[in-house]
Design a protein that fits this description.
alpha/beta, 51% helix, 9 strands, nine-stranded parallel sheet, globular
Length: 549
């Protein structure tokens, strides 16, 4: 590169720009520079910054051939009403070409309550499927061979209990634990800062997480024992840089806890997976995934001494951002979702679920859920973007942006380290305050018109919005689920339930791994509420006021 010649060329260009902008003033509020040149990636070392696909630092992807050999797993986040109704939706989606299941649980399930609990009234089956016991999990996966599908379960506080149920269902199907593939979200720290579906205080919650790390590394080696929730941090108002940094800080807290418990990084870290969002800023989102892979590989290698390649990899499931979808002109969301998904594919992700265009209004209909799946299939089979690996590599803009995002995320991590790590930062309210500040700035820009949202603050329709077909779960779902629960309880061996819960209680008092006790308990058809009730009594219940501890 002739640097002097390039700099002179830039000066000549800027002179022309000055004349052009006098006649045609540029629009304002651009996040990027006007132009990127080799000067923006000066000193760029290919081997250090990029390397090759499937090799450290994994910037260009975690698999040697990426989508030329294997497409990303195509999921649709689904779950509503009862297990039987959700099972029918799963079978429909699998027949439509979905390659993995992604289970949405209702709110009572997420916080460890049975459907007949007084706090569950009006929420049963509303935002996901109701799972009270092994009987529901059996119905949820009836006719779906668990050795043939990969299942992701969005569950955190009671994640270990739901995993125990999944293992028990597989056993009834004759499927060995070592054949199971899938993920439990199991990320409790982000619940304290982003979502709020926690049950227990942090320390016993961390114990449950490290217990699943240990159990799965020995018994369910293909299972992802945690899906660190960068997505939820972003949806709660964080920027793409905060999304990376805060999720990484949480993940490092889990790793530190597991190492402190005597586990080896190379044994459990391959089971760490991630869920990220894909937002609206196309190039920034694609660069985000590349930056995150490189930064995580460096952290795992340099900070934790991981030597196994899979322990250094950032394997990402993406869900397109739901918070940016609009109830106004909902069909516009089809276009938004398409370029969100494209940014994720060009960023090199491993699994994806696309929002349905009507999710800003209600649960997706069968038609909108199918279109969300077809969006992925069209990108995979008709767009040509899977033909070559990391096609954005070498772009002055993309490489500069990748470097910038990585550096800014690392600076956040250094700040959190100085505070004492993620738990201390959460306790001090640091992450929450940073996210809130960014969310306020974003919304402020929308309201002032600095940020355009089509159909909301620009090109809005004044005409009455056409009635949208929506899917809803009514109160009769709760009544049916409670009747099912009562019938199950009447037919089970209640003495066996009591004995299993008593053993779980004693184990919770000590330091043993709780997973075997949880599996034994769910096999007796002890309910989620009964199991979490025992753990609540032993561990306590987290209340969001004052110190986390």
């Amino acid at each position: 590169m002739d640097k002097e010649k390039l700099q002179q060329g830039l000066q000549d260009y800027e002179a022309k720009v000055a004349k052009a902008t006098a006649k045609f003033p540029e629009r304002k509020n651009f996040a990027a520079e006007r132009l990127y040149t080799p000067l923006d990636v000066e000193g760029f070392d290919y081997n250090e910054k990029l390397g090759f696909p499937g090799q450290y630092p994994f910037t260009r992807g975690v698999q040697p051939t990426m989508y030329r050999g294997r497409l990303w797993t195509m999921r649709a986040y689904a779950g509503f009403a009862t297990a039987e109704e959700t099972n029918a939706r799963y079978k429909y989606l699998l027949e439509a070409g979905q390659t993995g299941l992604s289970v949405a649980m209702d709110l009572p399930t997420q916080i460890g309550l049975d459907s007949d609990h007084e706090l569950s009234h009006g929420e049963v089956g509303k935002v996901g499927v109701a799972i009270d016991s092994l009987a529901d999990m059996e119905a949820l996966f009836d006719g779906i061979p668990l050795d043939k599908v990969s299942t992701s379960m969005t569950i955190n506080g009671p994640a270990a209990v739901l995993l125990a149920m999944y293992v028990a269902v597989a056993e009834k199907q004759g499927v060995a634990p070592e054949a199971l593939k899938g993920t439990i979200q199991n990320d409790i720290l982000k619940e304290y800062i982003a979502r709020g579906t926690y049950i227990f205080p942090p320390r016993p919650s961390m114990r449950l997480i490290t217990d699943t790390f240990e159990y799965c590394s020995k018994n369910i080696p293909k299972w992802n024992t945690i899906s660190v929730g960068a997505y939820h941090i972003r949806e709660a108002g964080a920027s793409e840089v905060q999304e990376i940094a805060f999720a990484f800080a949480n993940a490092m807290a889990y790793i530190d806890a597991a190492v402190k418990a005597g586990q080896k990084v190379d044994d459990f870290a391959p089971g760490i997976s991630w869920i990220f969002t894909a937002g609206l800023d196309f190039f920034s989102e694609a660069a985000k995934f590349r930056a995150a892979r490189r930064l995580w590989a460096r952290i795992m290698k340099e900070r934790y001494g991981a030597t196994v390649p899979k322990a250094q990899m950032l394997r990402v499931h993406v869900h397109t951002a739901g918070s940016v979808l609009t109830a106004q002109q909902p069909l516009n969301n089809v276009v938004r979702i398409t370029w969100q998904a494209l940014s994720a594919v060009l960023g090199g992700i491993q699994s994806m679920a696309c929002c349905a265009y009507d999710e800003a209004i209600a649960l997706p209909t069968e038609e909108s859920a199918t279109l969300a799946l077809r969006t992925q299939q069209l990108l995979a089979h008709e767009s040509g973007v899977t033909d070559t690996i990391d096609p954005l590599a070498g772009s002055y803009y993309v490489e500069s942006l990748t470097n910038k995002i990585e550096q800014e995320a690392y600076e956040y991590i250094e700040k959190i380290d100085k505070m004492g790590g993620a738990v201390a930062a959460i306790e001090q309210g640091y992450m929450q305050q940073e996210m809130a500040a960014h969310a306020y700035e974003y919304q402020h820009d929308v309201e002032l018109g600095k940020r355009t949202v089509i159909g909301v603050n620009k090109f809005a329709d004044n005409k009455k919005m056409a009635e949208q077909e929506v899917l809803t779960a009514d109160l009769s779902v709760g009544e049916r689920q409670i009747a099912r629960l009562n019938k199950m309880k009447a037919g089970r061996d209640n003495a066996a339930v009591a004995a299993a819960l008593a053993k779980l209680r004693e184990a919770a008092k000590g330091t043993e791994n709780l997973m075997p006790y949880l599996i034994d308990a769910v096999k007796t058809y002890a309910t989620l509420g009964e199991i979490c009730g025992v753990l609540r009594e032993e561990f306590g219940e987290y209340k969001q006021s004052g110190s986390m501890f």
